[in-house]
Design brief:
GO molecular function: metalloexopeptidase activity
Number of helices: 10
Organism: Candidatus Chryseopegocella kryptomonas
CATH architecture of the largest domain: 3-Layer(aba) Sandwich
Structural class: alpha/beta
Order of helices and strands: HHHHEEEHEHEEHHEHEEEHEEEEEEE
Shape: globular
Number of domains: 2
Strand content: 15-25%
CATH superfamily of the largest domain: Zn peptidases
Largest sheet: 8 strands, mixed
Strand order of the largest sheet: 1-2-4-3-5-8-6-7
Bound molecules: zinc ion
Subcellular location: Secreted
Protein name: Peptidase family M28
Number of strands: 17
CATH class of the largest domain: Alpha Beta
Pfam families: Peptidase_M28
Length: about 450
């Protein structure tokens, strides 16, 4: 027994004893983008959004200054202005649909998402999405006339997506990036559900969705004040009705390795390289406890999607009529938004989007060979013929570890064997890397004979 234990320890040493701290590389283009993202610009955009008085999805659409109609026309004109400033490559359009009668829609109502598409140099129909919802609400979900500033929920995310479009449209990317502003979130995720289905039906491959909802408050209702952290929510089990897939996930212990969770890990990994004091907290849960957001309809269609949200919420400033009661100010007002903090959350999006949209395709058809019982672990995938491909990273972690512990660059090959590494005890991932160091999302190999 003792001898066996000893042997096991020896086998583990090559994997986990050789930790060396890799030096952090910051891409100068990303640093430039980070510096261009401006808290002032975000502040101006939030104040403009609040000036429409309400952006409730059932509010006035004809007034030039009030209601959701005026708000969406302004959003479209802003995005068109950014497009003109950057050579007109970014295409701006409305995505209209009729929301049928439902619990929060008294009669069929036209709703309009606002979309700006920056086409990829190489991959036109493979896209990354950064999104927020521009509609707002007061205390009553059906009240379409009261003041509903929605400065933080989700003026912060909307202003952030605008800022990303303004800054990033000056650059070219291999993959298409869509900047998407949803309507109807507060009426039941209506805009995102419509749009996610539309993308699925048109065979567009959504590689990842970063949904920003409530990203500007740093003063928790419980008194905690902290501007150094943000949360990223991701689903564990895919929202899939595929029984075989769910059984396989359960059989081989991949409950913590959905594509959405890989996207969340990626965000933390690359974003924290660029911040000296800003922490990305991964929350291994689809959304906040029993609450929802616009990333979920993408999960329903099988697309990787995460929610980015502030660390400490303040419930007297969300979904409240604007008022003062017993000395407490209620309502989602711009004075409660920390614009510098919001800008940092927006920068985090920019870092991830830049690297994702310039990386090679994630490895295709990744498998873990299981033709016979072996002490080694062999991974295999399709070798890509992309020009700028440098090769592949193999990622490894223990089953109890939330994050990848080891990354091995294995070059431009389509198979790699990890000697004396038992597939019983580790989780494996593979990612593509280009010659500039842009890394793709990590894919987890499935068993194959
Ligand atoms: Zn919201």
């Amino acid at each position: 027994m003792k001898a066996k234990l000893y042997k096991c320890l020896i086998l583990l040493i090559p994997i986990f004893s050789l930790f060396s701290q890799p030096s952090i590389k910051r891409d100068p283009n990303v640093v430039r983008i980070i510096n261009e993202i401006s808290a002032d610009s975000i502040k101006r955009n939030i104040e403009k959004l609040v000036s429409f008085y309400t952006r409730h999805s059932l509010s006035d659409t004809l007034s030039p200054t009030r209601g959701i109609g005026a708000a969406r026309r302004w959003l479209k004109s802003e995005l068109e202005r950014y497009s003109r400033q950057s050579g007109g490559r970014m295409k701006v359009e409305y995505d209209e649909f009729i929301a049928p009668t439902g619990p929060r829609v008294p009669k069929p109502t036209k709703m309009v998402n606002v979309i700006a598409t920056l086409p990829g140099k190489i991959y036109k129909d493979k896209i990354y999405i950064v999104s927020a919802h521009y509609d707002s609400r007061a205390g009553d979900a059906l009240d379409s006339t009261s003041f509903a500033p929605g400065a933080n929920d989700d003026g912060s995310g909307t202003a952030g997506v605008l800022e990303l479009a303004r800054v990033m449209s000056k650059y070219e990317f291999d993959f298409t990036i869509m900047f998407v502003l949803f309507a109807g979130e507060e009426q039941g995720l209506l805009g995102s559900r419509h749009f996610a289905k539309k993308l699925k039906d048109s065979n567009i491959v959504v590689l990842g969705v970063l949904n920003n909802d409530i990203i500007g408050n740093t003063e928790g209702g419980n008194g905690i004040i902290d501007n150094t952290q943000v949360r990223v929510f991701s689903e564990g089990l895919p929202l899939s009705r595929d029984e075989n897939l769910l059984r396989l996930i359960s059989n081989i212990g991949l409950e913590n390795d959905s594509p959405s969770r890989q996207l969340a890990r990626y965000l933390k990994d690359v974003a924290e390289r660029y911040f000296d004091n800003f922490k990305v907290n991964l929350i291994f849960r689809r959304d906040r406890f029993l609450r929802g957001g616009d990333h979920t309809p993408f999960n329903e269609q099988g697309f990787p999607a995460v929610r980015i949200s502030e660390m400490n919420e303040n419930y007297s400033r969300q979904h409240q009529n604007v008022r003062t009661e017993k000395g407490i100010k209620y309502g989602d007002l711009p004075e409660f938004v920390d614009f510098e903090y919001c800008a940092n959350v927006v920068r985090l999006n920019a870092v991830a989007l830049y690297h994702l949209a310039n990386a090679p395709m994630p490895p295709q058809n990744p498998v873990i060979k299981v033709s016979e019982l072996e002490y080694d672990t062999t991974l295999r995938w399709d070798l890509s013929n992309e020009n700028d491909l440098a090769g592949y990273n193999i990622l490894i972690r223990e089953t109890t570890s939330p994050f990848w512990q080891k990354k091995i660059f294995v070059g431009r090959v389509n198979e790699f064997t990890l000697k004396n590494v038992s597939k019983d005890n580790f989780i494996f991932g593979i990612q593509s890397v280009d010659i500039d160091g842009n890394e793709s999302l990590v894919v987890v190999p499935m068993p194959s004979r």
